[in-house]
């Protein structure tokens, strides 16, 4: 096997995006990561944050950096869909509902406008008129973001990124990486299959398995957490949910920037159209790989599900009789609220792109481009782009 310049560990949203950026830049790259397990109950390998059918995609965000990464990424969707032949983007629009005067909504509006996104502010009545699934709420402001905002199918998006990367010259090995070793001449990645892959440098993008000392010898100061989502079944012919945007909704004037979020009904494996919602009200810490697996093999938190369902029914009362179920998911929080992209101190051949804080499904193409630059360019850490993404390392 030809020795690749770069091995990317983690064939998820960031890893596949980085492999695509590297391959298109003419770098020899091997992407390592297993497929989604067929039977999650008995799976012993890694799990991922992208095992789902719907993720909000929008530019409006209170953090101008996240807004910029989203805008850059969304602009690439048509190209990735064409390069792969896989459709993942549904530009149905997106709304952010908040108590009138919410500072977060004002910041999101300003960031979106600065990037030229098609946003307008309407009230709760107009929202209910445009999309009757929403109950009318007084005293709220609604930021309506038109297409290309909407949702992406994260499973299909990862598949599209991988196909596009392969077509650009990347190699894919669908197995788990079990160790990384480095020396003066390069690095070596050991695989669960027993194979070893020699390379120049390694980029680790393992999502919820971020705390794995076998791959990253100095742990970044980040927190993988389990989250629960609730899925509500919606009849295919229900007119209330037709032309529905994805949504972030906060109604509490005492906590104007807390919210729940969700995606318009989409088909799920096993049949039916399901509206998905979550609110991140309970963090279930996942300190290591075993805890991540246990979490994904559980049904999630019933307490979190109960709270999500109660919030959803205040906004979508038509769902009170709907069949519903829960799914576990996981994301990785950082102190900065932004990803950590940088080299591991003392291990310069290893870089990380971890800690996406629940926002990277829409923005992974920009973050993959940045991670690709970081792992190739020895001067990157001094760049302006590096500053906000600089990893914080846990005390040994
Ligand atoms: C409930 C929920 C809702 C969300 N909603 C949104 C949303 O609406 N909009 C949005 O933009 N984002 C959303 N996100 C966030 C988004 O899904 C994540 O930010 C994104 O998936 C992170 O990408 P990643 O590449 O870091 O991780 P992942 O996509 O999880 O990829 C990591 C990959 O690493 C692999 N891996 C791990 N360990 C190893 C190993 N040892 N060897 C090889 N491979 C390994 C895994 O198999 C996986 O494929 C949501 C997340 C959750 C949990």
From TrEMBL:
<feature type="domain" description="FAD dependent oxidoreductase">
    <location>
        <begin position="5"/>
        <end position="372"/>
    </location>
</feature>
<dbReference type="InterPro" id="IPR045170">
    <property type="entry name" value="MTOX"/>
</dbReference>
<keyword id="KW-0285">Flavoprotein</keyword>
<dbReference type="GO" id="GO:0008115">
    <property type="term" value="F:sarcosine oxidase activity"/>
</dbReference>
<dbReference type="Pfam" id="PF01266">
    <property type="entry name" value="DAO"/>
</dbReference>
<protein>
    <submittedName>
        <fullName>Glycine/D-amino acid oxidase-like deaminating enzyme</fullName>
    </submittedName>
</protein>
<keyword id="KW-0560">Oxidoreductase</keyword>
<keyword id="KW-0274">FAD</keyword>
<dbReference type="GO" id="GO:0050660">
    <property type="term" value="F:flavin adenine dinucleotide binding"/>
</dbReference>
<dbReference type="InterPro" id="IPR036188">
    <property type="entry name" value="FAD/NAD-bd_sf"/>
</dbReference>
<dbReference type="InterPro" id="IPR006076">
    <property type="entry name" value="FAD-dep_OxRdtase"/>
</dbReference>
